[in-house]
Each structure stands twice: as C-alpha cells, then as structure tokens.
Phosphoesterase
Amino acid sequence: MLLAFIGDIHGNLPALKEVLADAEMNKVEKIYHTGDLIGYGPYPNEVIELIRDKNIEGVLGNYDDGAANKKPTCGCDYKTAKEHEIGAKSLAFTVKSLLPENREYLKKLPNTIKFVIHGKNFLLFHGSPERLNEYLTPDLFPGRFNKLIEDYPDIDVFVFGHTHYPFYFLHQGRHFLNPGSLGKPKTKDPRAVYAQVEVTYDKLTVNFRPIPYPYDITAAAIRKKGLPEELAQIVSGNIPF
C-alpha cells in the first residue's frame, strides 16, 4: 500500500495543491497529515477546507492548538525578539482569519492517531506523543528514541512533524519518520517536501519528494494580507526561520 505523509503546511495553499496533485499522479492510496495546517501562511481557511474536502486524517499541531483556542502564544520556539514579533503578528492574523467552522475542525483534531497497515502499527503525532511542541531531532538519538520504544512497545512506525526537517531511520526494528515541512521550509530550498511510504508485509520503503510549486503566489499573498515580509522571504527560500 502506498501512503503519503504531509505536515507543517502552515497556510500554504499553492504548495498543498501541488503536493496533492503529485500524490494523485503517483496513485497514493491514503494521505495523513502531522499537524500545523495553519500559521505564518496567508491561506489558513483554504488549507483547512481542502484537507477536509479530501478527507485527509491527521493530528493537532501546536500552532493549530494556539490559533484555534486563541492562546497567547502558538507554543513555538522563538529565539530572538524579531522572531517573537513575527510570530505574534502571524498568530494575530491567523486567529482573526479563522472561520468558526474551521476553528471547530481544529479543536476536534486528536493529539495522536494509531492505525495498522499490513500488520505494522503506526503512531502519528506532531511534536511527541506527550507534547505538541517537543522537537524530536536526530541529535537526540538514541536516548529519546529508545524512550519512545520503551513507552510504546507495540508501535512499529512513528510518524511526526514540527521540526520542518525531513528524516527517516530504522532503529531496533522501529521506523522513525518526519516528512518535513510542506509549506514553510527551514532551509533555502523552497520546494514543498513530503514523504511517500510503500508498506508491504515484508518491508517499509520511504521516498522523500521535494515538489516545485509557485511560491511567488504565496509570497505575494503574504504581502497583500499584511503579514511580515520575512515570511514571504522564507517561502521563497531566501532565509530560514
């Protein structure tokens, strides 16, 4: 069975459309998202509505939680005063823009999803099963990943987002996958990345797919809607954030 995992879309509708078109072209049978559908990008409602229309299952992200519940912060890890300023403006825009039905959709997203494909038990979450905003990064190997195996001994495949960096590895017979950010890169590659996963009873194969899309449309919409210029530069691949 061919699956697709997408995540950290962050209100980037043009990127999402191109990724879904690629998944359809490749005859993907099922798509899941790892959360953070909104934030920073100019199309929060349109992204949520497309995810709903396509019946794409997924989990709550820290930004989804912050915006849907009108929290004072998005649970994001800002390191400088400038990043805090950009984040505050983005959150204010997103909270103000969300339609009531889309806010309710986000509120109903689960923190985790478990499912079975060809005998393999999957666990899907955003940051970690315990915290929406925990960063599971390769530099935490092996300690933090050993703890996940210890805490969730029945899980074969852990799929998560939040870091915006795609990676995959096999450890102690368990698979760990982050599909990366579809809509807000933390590198200077502006393409929308996602993961295609072929699952059989014998093996699991991961293929990361960086997809070109018209990021200039997203950048122009960011400027038109009064969001910080830095966010337009980020989706254009000029600066990481």
Summary: Residues 2-235 form a domain with the Purple Acid Phosphatase; chain A, domain 2 fold (CATH 3.60.21.10). The beta strands are 2-6, 30-33, 57-58, 112-117, 120-125, 157-159, 167-171, 174-178, 192-199, 204-211.
